[in-house]
Amino acid sequence: MKHEQWVDFLFATIEKVTTESFSYGKNDCCLFSARVVDAMTGTDYAKKLAEMYHDEQTALAYINSFGSIQEAVKDWLGEPTNLAFVQRGDVVLFNNEGRETLGICVGDRIVSVAETGIAYVPMEQAICTWKVK
């Protein structure tokens, strides 16, 4: 369940990675999304996820063991919900120049990690979403 101050925790977590470079197993889209969810809800998804992989090769092997990022996220957050009902703080899978990427809804955009820092992409790139309660 979201903390009373979840919005503050959401933006504080985003702020922490604004200048960090992308790195599988340290600062990638899955860990970023898990850290935001953890900050908003008090869960420990990021810690558990960090135990699953540590570099690009093991990250891809982890994802491939489920078949896709979407299936891996379903293992943690359940079935995706209708995109029409996406709200700030929800986890979003989106198309990032042909690659599926995870991020967090921050209104009419999705925020995710990029090569150097964070990037905001239009919600129109969303493929599916998971409600964070």
Describe this structure in words.
The protein is α+β, with helices and mostly antiparallel strands. It has a single domain (6-130), classed as endopeptidase domain like (from Nostoc punctiforme) (endopeptidase fold (from Nostoc punctiforme)), CATH 3.90.1720.10. The protein contains 5 helices and 5 strands. A 5-stranded antiparallel beta sheet has the order 4-3-2-1-5, with helices on one face. A hairpin with a 2-residue loop joins β1 (91-96) and β2. The model has no long low-confidence stretch (mean pLDDT 96).
Map the helices and strands:
Blueprint: H1 6-16, H2 29-41, H3 45-50, H4 56-66, H5 69-77, E1 91-96, E2 99-105, E3 109-114, E4 117-122, E5 126-130
Antiparallel strand pairs: 1-2, 1-5, 2-3, 3-4
List its salient traits.
38% helix, alpha+beta, 5-stranded antiparallel sheet, endopeptidase fold (from Nostoc punctiforme), 23% strand, 133 residues, single chain
